[in-house]
């Protein structure tokens, strides 16, 4: 009897537990369905909010882009207008500059033409006055240094008359020779080295001068006076050869120096070369106003067409 009652109690307990589980499952199912419904509604609401926000952002972007495009187009128009204005101003300035340069050039040409006419008239007048003078008076008026060497320490400021030269067999290239001298700036230079360097210079320039005609003699000054230092004198056989050399070499460069050869009013070397220097008795030394020439190099196998081999006194 007790066993039957126990079994009945156990069966009742099991039934209660089944009912409890069933009730819990039903409750869980109901709660789960409610949560899913609320979650779906929340997601739909969030999606709608995001969509509205996206549309607002897109509309704002379109508005900002249109504003930026309008501002860029306006800025481009301003830049184009400014560029056009600058080009117009630049063209106007260039035109004015060209007109000013043309006017200045015309004025300079007119002034140069007037200066040349005046100089020519002055030269003619001086020549006429000089021709009317006696030889003694001419010697007093004409610059003796210019007449003998083709140059003068006073240059254009000389108070004596520098006779213009239109034809001559002698030409002068001032400052063409630039070898350092032993007595210059207290530097000690070997005389043999100096002669060797001058021989190279001599052979180089002589070959160039021979292109224009028969060279009688080429002489270079070793004076330290500014108007004679480094001067190169060339004697041609004819005046035409000397004129051709002056025309061809004028404005050319040698050793970085621009050459301006000129004809000089010399008739012979005896006029320009210092006689006391040849006798080693010149008291003025290399500051003398007459020519102190370098020794003419003598080649073992002569290749230059000299009419005579006599050379000035050696240094």
Automatic annotation (TrEMBL):
Q: Which InterPro entries match?
A: Nucleotide-bd_a/b_plait_sf (IPR012677), RBD_domain_sf (IPR035979), RRM_dom (IPR000504), U2AF_small (IPR009145), Znf_CCCH (IPR000571)
Q: Which GO terms describe its cellular component?
A: U2AF complex
GO MF, one term, reads: RNA binding
**SUPFAM superfamilies cross-referenced by the UniProt entry:** RNA-binding domain, RBD
Residues forming the RRM domain are 169-259
**One annotated GO biological process:** mRNA splicing, via spliceosome
Zn finger residue spans: C3H1-type:
137-165, 268-295
Q: Does the keyword Ribonucleoprotein apply?
A: no
- Coiled-coil ranges per the record? 79-120
Q: What region holds the C3H1-type domain?
A: 137-165, 268-295
Pfam assignment, any one:
zf-CCCH
Q: Which UniProt keywords apply?
A: Coiled coil, Metal-binding, Repeat, RNA-binding, Zinc, Zinc-finger
PANTHER family per record:
U2 SNRNP AUXILIARY FACTOR, SMALL SUBUNIT
Identification of the protein by name = Uncharacterized protein
Tell me which species this is from. Answer: Saprolegnia diclina (strain VS20)
């Amino acid at each position: 009897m007790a066993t039957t009652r126990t079994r009945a109690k156990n069966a009742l307990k099991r039934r209660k537990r089944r009912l409890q589980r069933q009730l819990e499952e039903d409750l869980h199912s109901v709660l789960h369905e409610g949560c899913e419904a609320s979650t779906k509604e929340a997601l739909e609401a969030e999606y709608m909010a995001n969509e509205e926000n996206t549309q607002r952002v897109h509309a704002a972007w379109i508005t900002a882009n249109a504003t930026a495009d309008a501002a860029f187009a306006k800025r481009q128009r301003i830049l184009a207008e400014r560029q056009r204005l600058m080009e117009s101003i630049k063209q106007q300035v260039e035109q004015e500059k060209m007109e000013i340069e043309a006017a200045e050039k015309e004025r300079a040409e007119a002034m140069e033409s007037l200066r040349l006419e005046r100089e020519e008239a002055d030269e003619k007048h001086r020549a006429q006055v000089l021709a009317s003078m006696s030889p003694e008076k001419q010697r007093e008026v004409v610059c003796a240094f210019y007449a003998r060497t083709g140059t003068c320490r006073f240059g254009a400021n000389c108070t004596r008359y520098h006779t213009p030269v239109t034809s001559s067999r002698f030409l002068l290239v001032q400052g063409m020779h630039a070898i350092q001298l032993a007595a210059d700036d207290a530097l000690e230079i070997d005389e043999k080295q100096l002669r060797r360097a001058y021989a190279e210079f001599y052979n180089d320039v002589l070959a160039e001068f021979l292109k224009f005609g028969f060279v009688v003699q080429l002489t270079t000054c070793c004076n330290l006076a500014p108007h004679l230092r480094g001067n190169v004198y060339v004697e041609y056989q004819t005046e035409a050869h000397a004129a051709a050399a002056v025309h061809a070499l004028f404005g050319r460069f040698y050793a970085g120096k621009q050459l301006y050869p000129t004809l000089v009013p010399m008739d012979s070397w005896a006029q320009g070369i210092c006689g006391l220097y040849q006798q080693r008795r010149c008291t003025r030394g290399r500051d003398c106003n007459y020519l102190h020439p370098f020794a003419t190099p003598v080649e073992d196998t002569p290749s230059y067409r000299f009419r005579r081999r006599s050379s000035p006194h050696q240094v």
